[in-house]
Amino acid sequence: MTLQTPTPFPSPESPQEQVTFDRKELGALTRLYGQFVSAGEWRDYGISFLREAAVFSVFRRFAESPLYRIEKRPKLRDKQGLYSVVGMDGYILRRGNDLGQVLRVLEKKLIRAVE
Fold first, then answer.
1. Average pLDDT over residues 36-52
2. What is the pTM of this model?
3. For residues 9 and 41, what is the distance between their CA atoms, to the nearest angstrom?
4. Cα–Cα nearest to 87, from 57, 67, 111, 109
5. Quick check: helix, strand or coil at residue 2?
6. Residues 84, 102: Cα–Cα separation, whole Å
7. Which residues contact 84 (CB under 8 A, 6 or more apart)?
């Protein structure tokens, strides 16, 4: 029988750092999500809080890959912008430091001609 040292729990002094959305950002994201749900475009979403990024993914159906990912990456704040909208194919549609301006690329897709 071998003795193994127990793995210690993380101490409160050194918590695992995660990037998260604050209340204002979540409000803007869920407002946009609600508009697309009422239009019948989106049906599900997922939120991931990772070490380097927070990701809000939207889906047409649950079993599919996300249509869009709205990412928050604090390390890119001074270089390319804190927020980005990434399409299904992996291309970045828009970047910037203002979430409202970045989300406008998706709001344009909501506007349609009424016949």
1. 87
2. 0.77
3. 43
4. 67
5. coil
6. 7
7. 70, 71, 73, 76, 92, 93, 94, 95, 96, 102
Give the mean model confidence (pLDDT) for residues 92-115. Answer: 79
Cβ contact 100:82 at 8 Å = no
Token pair, residue 4, equals 């193994």
**Residue carrying the six token digits 């990701």:** 55
Look up tokens 């009424």; give the residue: 114
What are 2's two structure tokens? 């071998």
Q: Could you tell me which residues come within 8 angstroms of residue 19 by beta carbon, excluding any fewer than 6 positions away?
A: 49, 50, 51, 52, 53, 54, 72, 73, 74
Strand-pair partners of 86 = 69, 92
Half-sphere exposure of 52 (CA within 13 A, CB side): 2
Total Cβ atoms within 10 A of residue 71: 23
Instruction: Pull the structure tokens for residue 88.
Output: 């299904």
DSSP conformation class of 76:
G
The model's pLDDT over 81-98, given as tens digits with 9 standing for 90+, comes to 889 999 888 899 999 898
Chain centre to alpha carbon of residue 51: 13
